[in-house]
Write a structure and sequence with these properties.
Structural class: alpha/beta
Strand order of the largest sheet: 3-2-1-4-5-6-7-8
Shape: globular
Mean pLDDT: 90
Length: 248
Amino acid sequence: MSSAAGPDPTEAPEERRFLSTAEAAALERELLEDYRFGRQQLVELCGHASAVAVTKAFPLPALSRKQRTVLVVCGPEQNGAVGLVCARHLRVFEYEPTIFYPMRSLDLLHRDLTTQCEKMDIPFLSYLPTEVQLINEAYGLVVDAVLGPGVEPGEVGGPCTRALATLKLLSIPLVSLDIPSGWDAETGSDADGLRPDVLVSLAAPKRCAGRFSGRHHFVAGRFVPDDVRRKFALRLPGYTGTDCVAAL
């Protein structure tokens, strides 16, 4: 038996800025199971904060009419649901979102969020042009809500994979939600991933965010209770006033 002293259980855990995939999943379980957050509630909080981050990176008064047009590309998993909420709030904030949602989930939450967007007259594209210049000319920026942590491009099927291939070629600004689609959430390997200008980390940054080198990085985690932040040793900047996002 080793005589080396073990760690003092009273010591505070080492603070860190990034969460592993397992830690991020554990944090979400804590919110859902212990704090009794609802899944729809978390998606709504994250989607609203994502839209707020867009307004901070691209303030409406500084944009031309064309630059206010936003293409939101949604996948069939939870990140896609966050993207639908983000699009709805961007419409409320007087941007002009359009949604491309090629693989619509049968999940009730996704269907409800889709209905809300349709009722607000947010247009849905039936296909994404493969001619990149058409997208560059039609939109001021793109929101990537295709893949989340742990979701590989091959898992979501051909339409999303083809959409990502097109998004990689765009010259207009790109905003990724939680992690850039195609990145490994742990290592940040991005051989098949996007290169966003803006990253919005949901709840807390994932490990791959350490490799992000774009213009703006926001964390949308004001809703995370202080006790949970301390438990997971999150070292994040403070939120100003009533802001729901903070710049990293």
